[in-house]
Each structure stands twice: as structure tokens, then as C-alpha cells.
Amino acid sequence: MTWGLDDPSLINLYYAFQLFDGYVRGTASTQPGQAELRGLADVAKAAGLPVALASATVALVSVGDVDEAARLARQLCTDAPGWPRDGAWIASICLLADAVADLADAEGAGVLYPLLEPFAELAMAGGGGAVACDGSVSRHLGRLAATCGRLEQAQCHLRDAIAHEERMGARPFAALSRMYLAGVLLAQGGPESLATASRLARTARAAMHSMDMPGRAEQCARLVGAIDADLNQGTALTPRESEIVPLVSEGLSNRAIAERLFLSERTVETHVRHVLAKIGGSSRTDIVAWAYSTGSEAFRP
Q1: Mean pLDDT by 10 residues, the chain (301 residues)
Q2: Which of 25, 106, 141, 173 is the most buried (most CB within 10 A)?
Q3: Do 244 and 275 share a structural domain?
Q4: Helices marked H in the chain — which ranges?
Q5: What is the DSSP letter of 231?
Q6: Does residue 154 belong to any structural domain of this protein?
Q7: d(CA 121, CA 126)
Q8: What pLDDT sits at residue 113?
Q9: Which of 234, 250, 270 corresponds to the end of one domain?
């Protein structure tokens, strides 16, 4: 890029906006995004400030230079406890937290989590607030906890983040938090967790499509596929059970289902009971919710 003005502040703000927009929308790895973010990484390294270096780490992850990103992240995590608690401190930690989570760096996450934990109820704004708001600090804590393998803790933080971001009206970040929570629930496994994960991921994907977050929507679509694969493997409904689920979802009674399928009512009761056991449910409403979350034929146009 050729600049008509040699104003470092203007250049840095330009790169900051490019990083923020590309990271939230998931478009940073595309051209011309790669060239822009490599430029940011170079400028940030030259500046040497914590917030600039943390931004550089995110940029390097976004363009796929994970080796250099990991090297820089390790150094920054070592230095982070000694960073000055100025107006850019919380932004620096949150930026680095995103990079560490994307790199699956459990050691780095373990360093950053206790630094950030006292600020769980806050929202993160870059520097003096002029660049961007990044939603709830709890989202970053949830990602750090998940990276450390503390899934219950991660789930609590991410639920808090969704509630906070909904109150703020920060819809893109609420969508991100839903996607990350769905990933945590997928890692936890179990029919109930997977059904909830599927609903969250589908809600997040729809929101991302509506807000022009194409890269994130694609990421979320892959998550939906992984969740559905685990759901299908875990439930493994028989052909007859698969036949009954849409009829339950239509609101038919066991007697009505029995008449339609030429079965005894007791046989239908047994099949319904087996379905409930497989999906971890306790009522017919749970079957309807599960069928909806997994894209059952009963809910397809």
C-alpha cells in the first residue's frame, strides 16, 4: 500500500481496523487481507508495544503463519505478567488470549487466565475505546479455560459472555460466544450436551450469515457438521425409531402413530422410550427439541 500521508497514527489505526474487521468476520486469511495483516505484523513488531505485539500475533495466526505466531505468543505470555496496567492493558491481554486459544497453547492460556479473571464482568475496548469494542471479557476467559481443558469453567464463562453481549446488543460477539460454547459442549459430549451444542451452533451460523461474517459462518458450518456426526453416532436410531421421531414431532400420540404404522400402541411406547434413552431425554418435548436441533426430516421444508 502507498500512503499519501506519513502519519504513523493514521497508518496504525488503518491496520487496527483491518485486523478487527478481518478477525471478527473471519476474512483475514483471504486476499487482500493477507497483505494487509502482514503489513500490520511488520508495523507492530517495529513499535514493540504490548498491544501492537499482541495484535501482530493475531495477524500472524490469521494469515496462517502459525510457527511465527507461536514463537511470538510464547514470548509475550512470558512478558505479560509484567506489562504496565495502562489503558491498553486489557486489550493487549484479550488479543493475546485469542491468539493463544487459536494456537491451542495450553501453557500460554494458563498464564493469561489468572491475569484476566478479575475482569470477567467487563467488556473489552481497544486502547481509549476509539478503535473497537470486542465484547465480553468472559468470552476470552471461556476460550482460555477451554484451551486449558477446564470445560465446565469454560462453559460458565461463555454463557456469561452470551448474556453480557446480548445485553450490550453486541450481536457479532454473541454469535462468536455461541459458537465457542457449542465447541465446548461438543468436547464434553453426551446426548444432552450435543443437542444443546447443535442448537447453539445453528443459531450462531444463521446470525453470522445475516451479519456478513462469511469466514465465521463457514467455521460454524464445520462445527455443525462435527456435532451432527457425533449425534448420529451416539444415537444410532434404528430404522423404525427414525420413522417414529418425525411423527412424535408432528404431535401425534402413541395410538395415532401405531395406527399409521400398523403397530401396537405398546410397541410404539417401547420405541419412544428407546429414543428418549438414546438422546438423554425424559419427555416427548425432548424428542421434538432433539429432532429440531439435528435437522430431522420433520423440520425440513
Answers
A1: 54 74 78 58 70 86 88 95 90 94 96 97 72 87 96 97 96 97 92 86 95 95 88 75 90 92 91 84 84 59 38
A2: 141
A3: yes
A4: 8-25, 33-47, 50-62, 66-79, 89-102, 106-116, 137-147, 151-168, 171-188, 191-210, 214-235, 239-249, 254-261, 265-279, 284-293
A5: H
A6: no
A7: 16
A8: 98
A9: 234
Containing domain of residue 243, as a range?
237-301
Q: For residue 123, report the phi and psi dihedrals to the nearest 5 degrees.
A: -105, 150
Please state, as a whole number, how many other Cβ atoms lie within 10 Å of the Cβ of residue 251.
9
Residue 123's DSSP bridge partners are 136
pTM: 0.77
Residue type, 195: A
Nearest Cα neighbor of 16 from 66, 71, 59 is 59
Give long-range contacts, CB 8 A cutoff, 24+ apart: 240-244: 240/271, 241/271, 241/274, 241/275, 241/278, 244/268, 244/271, 244/272, 244/275
Q: What is the pLDDT of residue 234?
A: 63
Number of domains in the chain: 3
Annotate 160-199 with DSSP letters as a single string: HHHHHHHHHT-HHHHHHHHHHHHHHHHHH-SHHHHHHHHH
pLDDT digits (tens, 9 = 90+) for 21-68: 888 898 865 544 556 666 666 666 666 788 888 988 988 888 888 998
Q: How far apart are CA 48 and CA 54, in angstroms?
A: 10
| Confidence at residue 148, expressed as pLDDT on a 0 to 100 scale | 95
